[in-house]
Structures are given as C-alpha cells and as structure tokens.
C-alpha cells in the first residue's frame, strides 16, 4: 500500500485523519508513539528549527530532506507542507515528483505568492496568486503525481488575507474543480466562528482540512460534529513544546549551577537509547560482530 493509499484508508475507516506537527525524525517518532494518524511536515516548525522566519527562507531541499527522514523514521503517513510549491506551476511539476519519491502521503500547497509570509503573524503581508494561476499549479501537481492516491490538498489563504468568506468559497470551489482532493482553509480568528461559517457554507464534495492553532476551542469532538472535515492538523505543537521544555531546563541548570535539579523532569538517557534503537544494536552486535 502506498503512503497516499494508507492515508485514504485511515480517512475512510475513521472519517478523520489527525496529524501532529513535527520538524525532525525524532519528533516524528514521538508523534507516532503518541498515536496520531499522520505527521504534519510543517514549514513553520522546520523554519523555527533552523532559527529563521517562515517566509520561504528554508529551501525546498532542506524541507524535502527532513520530510524524507521523517517518512523513514516514523512509519506514519506524512503530510508535506510545500508552502506555495516553491515557485510557479513549472516548479510544482518538479516538487511533486520529488516529494512523491520521498514517500509522502499528502501534499498541501497554498495560494499565496512566492515568497510567502507566515500566516498567523499580525498584520502580515498576505499576497495571493490569481485563481487561474493556482488552478494551473493544481493541474501541474495532478500531472506530476504517479500515484493517483497521493492526496493533493489545496490551501486557501483567503480568510488569512482578510478577503472574506465569499472569496474563500470561490477559491475553494475553483480548486476542487481543478482537481484538488481536499481543501484546507486557514483562519487566524481567535474563535472558530469564521471557520465554522465556512464549513457550513461549503457545498463541495472535497473534505476540508483545518489547522486550528489560533482557535484552540476546536477540539476533535467539535471537528467531528462539523462532519465535513477530513484532516485535522495540530500545526506547531512539537516545536512550541520543545522550546518551552528546553527553556525551562536550561534556566534551571543555570540557576542551580548544575544538572542535579532537572534529572527528574527530563527524559532519561535510556529513554533516548530506546528511541534510537540501541536494543537492536545490542542484538546485532551479538549476531554479526565476530
Ligand atoms: C505550518 O505549520 O507551517 C503551517 C500552519 O503552514 S501555519 O503556520 O499556521 O500557517
Ligand atoms: Mg506552513
């Protein structure tokens, strides 16, 4: 079964794919351990991991390499955040080929212009491409995929750009007509109202994907009640959790003048050995080293 087929299977069986963000193979492994259905190979998280803003500074190669490593180590379907597709429809042809070869299950491409600006920033410069141009990019993605089960998610930033529900619906309909398998609609409103209104008004067949970072009242139960949601993405909680944990630990060590005060609150070395697969190394040593 291909990664895309696996994703579609989870969606068919559970009615919803729940993806958690990751920015490294280790964080992807922890996503799998926690029982999520899929990995969100987040551009925001990877940018943060490199210590740079999420404004198309991280290259396709950097994101692709990390995504490939997360596919390898997690065993879960990976949903790749390819931002704007790293250029125009011609770039998209190459990008889709590369990500499919890396083993991703789904690809999310957004209708902003390159270079993009992170969506949730207050007062961000949110420039969108024309609908026809983005339809061409969806068309290119469809033409480039070899596996018809590779899930193509078209993301509209109309609400993020402040263009309102009518424009968001118009774009979503146009992207479904161009062949997108799913529509991601993003919002930075502090409550779910804007998104819920969009979902209620959505008259297409394609399931909707949500990233409810700005409106955390949106639980899995509430998403299920909306019925039309196929993919729920927890957008940046791996990197934010690790920033919080590292800050707390580093400050404690500085304050205590040693590491004795943090031992109980951080992972043990044995825990990390387990994640690295040291048990297998032991077995392999016995078997192969002579
Ligand atoms: C990401 O995680 O990179 C996303 C979601 O695209 S957001 O940052 O909310 O735009
Ligand atoms: Mg992103």
From TrEMBL:
The keyword Transmembrane does not apply. SUPFAM superfamilies: Phosphoenolpyruvate/pyruvate domain. One of its GO terms (molecular function) is catalytic activity. Gene3D superfamilies: Phosphoenolpyruvate-binding domains. It holds the Pfam family PEP_mutase. Keywords: Pyruvate. InterPro entries: ICL/PEPM, PPH, Pyrv/PenolPyrv_kinase-like_dom, Pyrv_kinase-like_dom_sf. Belongs to the isocitrate lyase/PEP mutase superfamily. PEP mutase family. This is Phosphoenolpyruvate phosphomutase. It comes from Reyranella soli.
């Amino acid at each position: 079964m291909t990664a895309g087929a696996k994703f579609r299977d989870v969606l068919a069986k559970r009615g919803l794919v729940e993806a958690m963000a990751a920015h490294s193979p280790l964080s992807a492994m922890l996503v799998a351990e926690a029982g999520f259905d899929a990995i969100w190979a987040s551009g925001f998280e990877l940018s943060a991991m490199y210590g740079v803003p999420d404004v198309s500074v991280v290259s396709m190669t950097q994101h692709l390499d990390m995504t490939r490593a997360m596919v390898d180590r997690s065993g879960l379907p990976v949903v790749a955040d390819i931002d704007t597709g790293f250029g125009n429809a011609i770039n998209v042809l190459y990008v889709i080929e590369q990500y499919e070869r890396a083993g991703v299950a789904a690809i999310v491409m957004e209708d902003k212009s390159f270079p993009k600006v992170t969506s949730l920033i207050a007062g961000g410069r949110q420039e969108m491409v024309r609908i026809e141009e983005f339809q061409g990019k969806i068309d290119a993605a469809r033409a480039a995929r070899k596996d018809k089960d590779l899930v193509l998610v078209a993301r509209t930033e109309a609400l993020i750009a402040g263009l309102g529900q009518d424009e968001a619906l118009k774009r979503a309909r146009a992207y479904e007509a161009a062949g997108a398998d799913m529509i991601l609609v993003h919002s930075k409103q502090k409550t779910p109202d804007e998104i819920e209104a969009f979902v209620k008004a959505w008259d297409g067949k394609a399931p909707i994907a949500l990233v409810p970072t700005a409106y955390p009242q949106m639980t899995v139960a509430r998403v299920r009640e909306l019925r039309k949601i196929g993919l729920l993405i927890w957008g940046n909680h791996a990197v934010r959790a690790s920033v919080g944990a590292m800050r707390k630990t580093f400050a404690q060590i500085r304050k205590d003048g040693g590491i004795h005060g943090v031992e109980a609150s951080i992972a043990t070395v044995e825990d990390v050995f387990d994640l690295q697969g040291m048990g297998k190394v032991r077995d392999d040593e016995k078997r192969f080293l002579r």
